[in-house]
Every structure is written in C-alpha cells, then in structure tokens.
Amino acid sequence: MKSLDVSLVIPVKDEEVTLEALYERITEVLEGLNLTFEIIFIDDGSTDQSFDIMKKLSQRDSRVKVVKFRKNFGKAAALSCGFEKARENIVITMDADFQDDLKEIPKFIDLINNGYDVVSGWKKIEKIL
∠89-26-80 over CA atoms, to 5°? Predict the structure, then answer.
C-alpha cells in the first residue's frame, strides 16, 4: 500500500463516551499503515464534555485539530467545515460513535491507490432466517 496523506473529518455531537477510544483506534489503524494523517473533530454544539476531551487530545497530539461550533448546525455543516480545513490528499468522513468500521479504512485507501476518485461504504444487514 502506498503511503498517502489522510484527513479524517469527524462531526461530534455529545460523544464524550467514545472520543478517547475512537482516537486510539484511528491512530492504531493509520500508524499501522505508515500513513501521515490528521484528525479533524468538528464539535457541532455538544453540551457534554466532548469539546474538553477533543481539546486535550489536540494538546497531546498535533495531528488532532478541533473546531467548535457555538451551537448545533447539523452534520452537513460540520462536514463542510471539515472539508474546508482538511489539508491532506484523501479525506475520510466517519461518525464519532463507532458506527463506521475502522477496519474499512485500509480498503478505502487501497481503492483510491488503484485509481478511484471517490469511495463510499454502507452497512449491509444480513437477514437471519
């Protein structure tokens, strides 16, 4: 896998419970791929301790960037802001609550390396008979 730069854009709304683990898992996956990256958290008007946690992560790791909205503007606005801030060649969006499988990141990057301009994923629900 080629070494490409990646920006992760993550809208956050009241996710204090998941943020530390999400950060740890993201860094584990991307460092394992020998990729340079940045994580851009967009605080979309959280009322819990999410912003404080993201701020501490950014103080600990210069790859973490945080933007704080003064109120909830919605996911589309948070993503748009993150796209504007992204500095890297590949932008990956994900939710802050582990709805997205981080193991898919290498597959997405591999597809980009193989000439795709856009890669999208979705959940597949298997019916149990």
Answer: 50
